[in-house]
């Protein structure tokens, strides 16, 4: 997955990557050449006592060093452009893809998870890419180059490598094999401990009410001890790594001197080469170590890549038709023709054979229990989901045959959870129509019974709203969300149980004002409170996805048992 | 030699990444933290290590010994090189000559240079490498290296235990602290912030303790040891190497200061972008229906580009440090090679010493870069530690009065006398509140949304303590009882249903310690939970996730009622609000609550007309204060706030319905 992702997103940066790799090769070669020069300096300069030679070689070494520094900085420049650029591009791609998701994909992947994928996961990819470009690429070059140079210095002595390198690989391999699963289980345990703490904080009242503090402490203690013992095991494995590797490297030096000394003594090798050989061996071993250390990063990045790929390969289940039909008028007529809807894998359909027509100027209320399908019914109008059978028509054209933007343009939705965006009151109100004038905004606020409190806010229309609208009360949020829909002036209003946080007085005044305002629009109200809906032109009573009653309040009171039951439960025996 | 352990990448937080911006991207990447109280925090953190002081002393000893051995190593290896070098030079000289003769001979041949060098060597002309001596030296070297490795491992092994135990203790204390904090703390601090302190910050401290301290110790010891060896070999070369130290530090500080700002910008923009993504995804349907996709993408692209620029600059700037230090190190290397070679040739220094010196100078620059990167990690760790200590120092709940009073078989009688209470000193809420509740009576608490109806709950349950007056259970002042005793008398069913990750059985059993499976099922039957639980594939063993997302809100509420049944309290606190609960479930909830209330005193946050009208007394609240109190009939006659409320809320619906 990681490879696939990088192959796609590195393509625009081919030039930079090629440049960086080229520079890395030069760097590696130059780095390999330095010990060679050092050997010359000893063989030809020190041993022969040729001081001018020493100076000359020293100057060359300095020159190479300088070039190396410049190359390294240039390489970092281009690799930063590439790795950060890839991160930026993946983020944008994820965001754009998610924007086109329908409710089904959003529910399946979940907002928190999508956020993590767009930030943390992309960061993992960036990290691994940056490290790969600067270090991982040079490691194999250094290792292979080191082996070649070592062989060039002396073939016999190089035999030592056959012993040392596999030994290191085995030690590191065993360590990784042991540590990685432990590491994973540690992550799970950290999550667990954080979960317990989160529950303790959010449930503090319940815990104290039921006097279960000591039980909670036990629960935590178990998780804490569990995590500690795993973390200890992981760390005890990791603390073995550095001493073991350093030990091997140092012992290799000892071995090189012993065997090399004999070669030097028998005249098969100049002494300067011994020094160079030592440095090559170090280089090879360090390269192996680095490569291994970097490899640790890969499983995590791989997991991140898989999670990103999952988003990228998810096709929105709802998309524009190939040849959209444009309804001739936008009057707001909504028709359900034999509509059934079920979630994939769901046993029972959520909605069952619904047929009705909603016309402009009418207010239709939908009432029924949770799970009776009220919100689902609403969601079918803006095509958040597609019907399983039947058709939903807006302006006499099946919603599936319309361009989504066109369809959505006719709809003003006020969802169950009133959600405001960070910005000002005015920015929120203009969400659906940017060119609305201040006068229009105030009018909408007036209708939504929000004028007074907005007028009291510092800055009024320019008063800041926090993300989600958390700095205003639930009732205020609902009223602002209603005003936002009013500013858009859509042909169809969908109010999804959005009067629940209003006290009855405000609720009544709002509905009265709304009636005037939405005279020419189709209005659908989902509500739990009977008092909110009983003045509607028509009430649809849903039960388990079926229409069990359709008519005015008075009609339903006499004809529909389910409706009477609802009224009775809310208003008491007397009302019924 | 551009290879070196990546500073932050690995030294960062292998386990991090909970928070949206958590996890060290690079060591240098932690946001800059103010260091006002760092000294104090460091002392507190070290204080935490005190119980382990004997082990830590041992660790320091082991570390010092290990560093000492690994520092001596190159010197011994240098001796070995000398023996080899002496050998080959000696071999090329005619045998039977003394060293002095050989030097004279070389001078005579005009080879003053070599003669000069020879004078500084231990050469026996005609004799090759002394392998016996070389063997002894190399064996010694091997022994020293093995010892260094073993000691270093032992040091790390013990330190891991110390760090883990310390963090374990800190976590335990933090959790215990949660239980001792007053409810006020939780109500006045954002949950996200508390959570972040007890999770993210603790994780960060763990990393610091685990890697930072021990590595810092080793690094400092190494610098000192290596510097000592370098001076003992050649003060001149050592002095030259020493010049690179302030240069390296200067470069690091210079660049780090700039990159730090860019890293801070990077985190800031990551946060902003995160916020935008969260906002747009949360309001996904709205963004679509209100035609804002293009706008929101444009905004994303703009922020994304800013983030890219900041992170590119941060990455590039911090990337410069490495090559720059490398350049300095290489410069040093060349200087030593040239000067050293010169001095070997002039006979004032042995080849082995030069070689040892080169190795030392490499060992020397490494820990310096390490210290530089560790300082960042340490600083970030201390900033987290400070937040944790701050949390641990928060004011605790006043301890229970040790009166030894026990409340056996509470009858359900509650008396409130002259109760005064305010959340904030300058905002009086409840003054001179009197209420007498006889066993089995029902008290309705009514008022518009946000009127502060939970205040009464807070006081009854002693979540908050009243300022003056008395609340009595069976004429015992609740202040003379332990909080636990008071709470055992009450059962609570709130709208905010709290279920934890675990089975349905565990969640119900939460109501009473030591409840058997039969008790759980009986309570579930009483609360009408049993039928729907049985339709679940795993029944009572069904595991709920943290949000209990598999259940509807009505079902969640029924579960909490079952919990209250199991607790079997003498007094109940109920919240009738049932918004977003379907009618059928609501009927079940009402029935379950009615059954639960039988024979018990109950305080009901009431929404249903029948409950209110049948209540023995009604407490009317508005804007956080108790405004009226009395029976339904009394309050109607008074034509006050309740009268208004009652008319607006119920009569319209009532009239229309009947």
Quick structural gist:
The complex is a heterodimer of chains A (576) and B (658). Chain A is an alpha/beta fold and 576 residues long. Chain A is built from 21 helices and twelve strands.
Strand order of the largest sheet of chain A: 6-9-10-3-11-12
Q: Write out the CATH superfamily name of the largest domain in chain B.
A: ABC transporter type 1, transmembrane domain
Biggest interface and residues each? A-B, 178 and 175 residues
The share of residues in helices of chain B is 55-70%
Q: Strand order across the biggest sheet of chain B?
A: 6-9-10-3-11-12
Largest sheet of chain A: 6 strands, mixed
Overall domain count of chain B: 2
What oligomeric assembly is this protein in? heterodimer
Key descriptive features of the protein:
heterodimer, A: 576 residues, alpha/beta, 6-stranded mixed sheet, 4-stranded antiparallel sheet, 10% strand, elongated, B: 658 residues, ABC transporter transmembrane region fold, Rossmann fold, 2 domains, 12 strands, 64% helix, disordered C terminus
Write the topology of this structure.
The complex is a heterodimer of chains A (576) and B (658).
Chain A: H1 2-10, H2 14-46, H3 51-99, H4 103-109, H5 111-136, H6 138-153, H7 155-202, H8 204-209, H9 213-265, H10 271-295, H11 297-312, E1 334-341, E2 351-358, E3 363-368, H12 374-380, E4 389-394, E5 397-398, H13 404-409, E6 411-414, E7 423-424, H14 425-429, H15 438-447, H16 451-456, E8 464-465, H17 474-488, E9 492-496, H18 504-517, E10 522-526, H19 530-533, E11 538-543, E12 546-551, H20 553-559, H21 561-571
Chain B: H1 7-11, H2 38-48, H3 53-92, H4 99-108, H5 112-119, H6 131-180, H7 183-188, H8 191-233, H9 235-282, H10 284-289, H11 293-345, H12 351-392, E1 414-421, E2 430-437, E3 442-446, H13 454-460, E4 468-473, E5 476-477, H14 483-489, E6 490-493, E7 502-503, H15 504-509, H16 517-526, H17 530-535, E8 543-544, H18 553-567, E9 571-575, H19 583-597, E10 601-605, H20 609-614, E11 617-622, E12 625-630, H21 632-638, H22 641-657
Helix pairs in contact in B: 2-12, 3-6, 3-8, 3-12, 4-5, 6-8, 8-9, 8-12, 9-11, 9-12, 11-12, 16-18, 18-19
């Amino acid at each position: 997955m990681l490879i696939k992702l990088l192959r796609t997103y590195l393509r625009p940066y081919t030039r930079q990557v090629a440049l960086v790799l080229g520079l890395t090769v030069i760097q590696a070669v130059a780095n390999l050449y330095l010990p060679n020069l050092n050997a010359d300096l000893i063989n030809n300069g020190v041993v022969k006592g040729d001081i001018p030679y020493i100076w000359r070689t020293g100057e060359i070494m300095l020159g190479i060093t300088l070039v190396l520094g410049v190359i390294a900085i240039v390489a970092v420049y281009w690799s930063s452009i590439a790795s950060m650029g890839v991160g930026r591009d993946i983020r944008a791609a994820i965001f754009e893809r998610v924007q086109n998701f329908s409710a089904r994909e959003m529910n399946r992947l979940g907002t928190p998870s999508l956020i993590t994928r767009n930030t943390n996961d992309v960061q993992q990819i960036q990290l691994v890419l940056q490290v790969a470009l600067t270090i991982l690429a040079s490691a194999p070059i250094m290792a292979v180059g080191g082996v070649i140079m070592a062989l060039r210095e002396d073939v016999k002595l190089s035999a030592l490598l056959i012993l040392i390198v596999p030994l290191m690989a085995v030690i590191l391999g065993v360590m990784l094999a042991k540590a990685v699963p432990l590491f994973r289980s540690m992550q799970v345990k950290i999550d667990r401990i954080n979960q317990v703490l989160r529950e303790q904080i959010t449930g503090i009242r319940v815990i104290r009410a039921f006097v279960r503090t000591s039980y909670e402490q036990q629960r935590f203690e178990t998780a804490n001890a569990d995590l500690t013992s795993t973390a200890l095991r992981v760390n005890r494995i990791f603390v073995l790594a550095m001493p073991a590797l350093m030990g091997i490297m140092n012992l290799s030096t000892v071995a090189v001197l012993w065997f090399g000394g004999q070669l030097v003594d028998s005249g098969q090798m100049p002494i300067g080469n011994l020094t160079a050989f030592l440095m090559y061996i170090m280089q090879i071993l360090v390269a192996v170590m680095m490569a291994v250390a970097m490899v640790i990063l890969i499983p995590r990045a791989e997991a991140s890549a898989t999670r990103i790929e999952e988003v990228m390969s998810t096709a929105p289940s709802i998309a524009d038709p190939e040849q959209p039909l444009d309804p001739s008028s936008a009057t707001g007529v909504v028709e359900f023709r034999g509509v059934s809807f079920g979630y994939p894998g769901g046993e029972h359909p959520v909605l069952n054979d619904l047929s009705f027509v909603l016309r402009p100027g009418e207010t239709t209320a939908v009432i029924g229990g949770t799970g009776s399908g009220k919100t689902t019914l609403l969601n079918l109008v803006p095509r958040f989901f597609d019907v399983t059978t039947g058709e939903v028509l807006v302006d006499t054209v099946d919603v599936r045959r319309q361009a989504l933007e066109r369809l959505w343009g006719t709809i003003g939705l006020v969802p169950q959870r009133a959600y405001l965006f960070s910005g000002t009151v005015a920015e929120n109100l203009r969400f659906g129509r940017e060119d609305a004038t201040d006068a229009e905004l105030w009018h909408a606020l007036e209708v939504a019974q929000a004028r007074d409190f907005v007028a009291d806010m510092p800055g009024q229309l320019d008063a800041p709203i926090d993300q989600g609208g958390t700095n205003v009360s639930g009732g205020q949020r609902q009223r602002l969300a209603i005003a936002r829909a009013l500013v858009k002036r859509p042909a169809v209003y969908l109010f999804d149980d959005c009067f629940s946080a209003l006290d009855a007085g405000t609720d009544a005044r709002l509905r009265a004002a709304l009636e005037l305002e939405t005279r020419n629009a189709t209005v659908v109200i989902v509500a739990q409170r009977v008092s909110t809906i009983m003045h509607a032109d028509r009430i649809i009573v849903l039960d388990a996805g079926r229409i069990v009653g359709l008519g005015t309040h008075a009609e339903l009171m006499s004809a529909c048992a389910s409706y009477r039951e609802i009224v009775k439960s809310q208003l008491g025996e007397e009302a019924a | 030699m551009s290879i070196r352990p990546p500073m932050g990448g690995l030294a960062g937080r292998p386990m991090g990444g909970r928070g949206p911006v958590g996890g060290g991207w690079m060591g240098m990447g932690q946001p800059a933290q103010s260091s006002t109280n760092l000294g104090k925090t460091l002392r507190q953190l070290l204080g935490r290590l005190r119980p382990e002081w004997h082990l830590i002393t041992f660790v320091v000893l082991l570390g010092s010994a290990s560093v000492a051995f690994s520092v001596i190593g190159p010197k011994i290896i240098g001796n070995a090189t000398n023996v080899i070098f002496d050998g080959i030079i000696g071999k090329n000289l005619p045998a039977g000559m003394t060293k002095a003769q050989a030097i004279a001979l070389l001078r005579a041949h005009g080879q003053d240079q070599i003669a000069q060098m020879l004078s500084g060597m231990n050469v026996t002309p005609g004799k090759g490498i002394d392998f016996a001596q070389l063997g002894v030296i190399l064996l010694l070297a091997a022994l020293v290296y093995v010892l260094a490795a073993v000691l270093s491992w032992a040091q790390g092994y013990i330190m891991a235990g110390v760090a883990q135990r310390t963090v374990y203790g800190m976590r335990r204390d933090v959790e215990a602290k949660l239980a001792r904090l007053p409810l006020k703390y939780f109500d006045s601090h954002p949950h996200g912030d508390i959570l972040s302190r007890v999770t993210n910050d603790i994780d960060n401290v763990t990393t610091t303790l685990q890697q930072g301290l021990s590595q810092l110790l080793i690094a400092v010891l190494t610098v000192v040891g290596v510097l000592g060896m370098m001076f003992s070999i050649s003060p001149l070369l050592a002095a030259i190497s020493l010049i690179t130290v302030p240069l390296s530090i200067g470069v690091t500080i210079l660049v780090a200061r700039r990159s730090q700002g860019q890293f801070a910008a990077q985190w800031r923009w990551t946060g902003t972008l995160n916020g935008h993504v969260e906002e747009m995804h949360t309001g996904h349907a709205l963004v679509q229906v209100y035609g804002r996709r293009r706008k929101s993408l444009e905004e994303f692209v703009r922020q994304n580009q800013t983030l890219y620029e900041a992170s590119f600059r941060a990455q590039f700037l911090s990337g410069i440090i490495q090559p720059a230090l490398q350049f300095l190190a290489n410069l040093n290397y060349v200087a030593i090679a040239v000067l050293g070679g010169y001095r070997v040739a002039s006979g004032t220094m042995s080849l082995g010493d030069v070689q040892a010196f080169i190795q030392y100078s490499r060992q020397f620059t490494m820990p310096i870069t390490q210290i530089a990167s560790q300082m960042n990690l340490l600083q970030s760790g201390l900033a987290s530690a400070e937040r944790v200590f701050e949390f641990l120092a928060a004011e605790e709940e006043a301890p229970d009065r040790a009166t030894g009073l026990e409340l056996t078989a509470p009858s359900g009688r509650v008396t409130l006398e002259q109760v005064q209470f305010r959340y904030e000193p300058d905002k009086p809420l409840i003054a001179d509140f009197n209420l007498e509740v006889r066993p089995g009576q029902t008290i309705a608490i009514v008022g518009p949304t946000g009127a502060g109806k939970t205040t009464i709950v807070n006081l009854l349950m002693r979540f908050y303590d009243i300022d003056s007056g008395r609340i009595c259970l069976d004429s015992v002042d609740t202040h003379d009882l332990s909080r636990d005793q008071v709470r055992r008398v009450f059962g609570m069913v709130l709208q905010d249903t709290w279920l934890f990750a675990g089975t349905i059985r565990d969640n119900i059993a939460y109501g009473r310690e030591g409840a058997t499976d039969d008790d759980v099922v009986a309570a579930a039957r009483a609360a009408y939970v049993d039928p729907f639980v049985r339709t679940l594939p795993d029944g009572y063993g069904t595991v709920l996730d943290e949000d209990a997302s598999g259940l509807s809100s009505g079902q969640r509420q029924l579960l909490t009622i079952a919990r209250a049944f199991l607790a079997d309290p003498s007094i109940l606190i109920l919240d009738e609000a049932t918004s977003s609960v379907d009618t059928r479930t609501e009927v079940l909830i009402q029935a379950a609550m009615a059954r639960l209330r039988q024979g018990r005193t109950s305080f009901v946050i009431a929404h249903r007309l029948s409950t209110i009208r049948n209540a023995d007394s009604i407490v009317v609240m508005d804007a956080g204060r108790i405004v009226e109190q009395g029976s339904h009939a009394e309050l109607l006659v008074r034509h006050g706030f309740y009268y208004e409320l009652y008319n607006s809320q119920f009569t319209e619906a009532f009239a229309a319905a009947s």
